[in-house]
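pasting Haem-binding uptake Tiki superfamily ChaN domain-containing protein for the record, 488 residues
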Amino acid sequence: MRTMLKMGWLALLLAVGCAGRQDLETPDYEAIYDVPLEEMWPSVREYFTEARLPYREDRGSGVLETEWKQEFGGSKIAGYWHRYMVIGKRETPTKSKLWIIRITKTVNKALAQPGRQLDWGTSRGLGPSDGINSGAPGDASSSLAYSVSVEDDEDRLAFPVGENAFYVDSGQGTRDLTMEWRVFRGIMPKLAKKQAVSAQQQVAKAPGAKEAPAFTECGQSILGLKKLAKAGGVVLLGEMHGTQEVPRFIAQSVCQLVTSGMPVTVGLELPVENEERVTTFLQSPSGEVDWLKLMEAPFWRSPYPDGRGSEAVANMLEQLRQLRAQGLDVAVFVYDHPKLSGQKREDALTQTVLAQVKVAPQRFHLVVSGNVHPRTAKGLPWDKQYRPMGYLLKDQLDDVTALDMAYNSGTAWICAADKQSSKLDCGVKEAKGKDNGDRFFVHTWASANQDGYHGVFYVGHVTASEPAILKGLGNPDAAPAQEPASAP
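structre below
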């Protein structure tokens, strides 16, 4: 058995590389431990303890469940929460494996199961004793907006409460191979008595950082993302401004890449005049005064807020700041030139992005903008000679991939021309898309389409995100966010 264990560990070393490199993509097959379940399980407990993921365990069954934890904890804006159920399985008498189920919940109803709002029959809900409760939202016979059964009530009361509370409206549970391999790579060195080598520690540590976290929660793995991440590579994301989901996609992408060893620079389509403010905020402790300095820029107070100054974007900056604060190698720059228009603006955007890429060829660059700029094909319907930023960058860089946004229907904060007044009308508007499930993914085609896009990035159901300034972000007199209560 010891020979098998050594061979398994040798295979792992070959997979991640003796020089500390590892394939960013998660294998699509199970991790098998060449040890019995009883010998492997104590290391599983130790891993989750060291990762600061408190758990409850059914002793003797090989099952544990972590407490609820917020993605990018400490967010000022209601976000997403997760927990893991870890199940030890006996493959053979001498081999074992783990199944890890990741459960995600949020106040956003994007993850709600189809038919959740329907009344399927007689309810066992907790309602007044003198009335019949249908369980439907707003039922006058119920003292609760959403009735739950007696069996569900214990779990409902165990959820986090306060500003970031969530209920049974939105959730999903899926097997998480990324987490399974992360645990495998974390505990195999100890099982093999090779404490000096740990592939799990190969993160992109920021220059000058004393240490980087052994474990960082980055959300459910984004399918197809890591295969595009290469040193010197540029991925251009063409978005529809004003959603909650695109900034979350960016934050999760960055987190998943830097914790896999790839340093990442994010380019945001914000005015270049904000460069110093954004950099200062990312290096700050994120106190109320730091938020005020970020938000006092005229950009956030535009009379026509087009979605780039949304609360989701502000929250994304906070999430990237948290990753930097942990010692992970994350950088951000802004590159918009709003005083210019037409081709002159595209030229200026290109030069600003190009300068950032050339000065840091060892980094991966993720650049987001409205969906005209990333196109790598010449011409627009109204101007056949138009050369978008993506088209110009493609001629000067070796690795440029343009991805168009794909999404399920929902809402977005959009500024559109009012036909009657000829002025911009900004607000929450309906967005029509196509349902491809609720999981983020990246998909590339064999060749670029007629618009110059090489594929799509999919963000599921979209929900509008209002301007950050309307939410009071940056107000030093605002009440602090309430800390969520932990589950008993």
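The mean pLDDT is 80.
Residues 211 and 327 are 6 Å apart (CA to CA).
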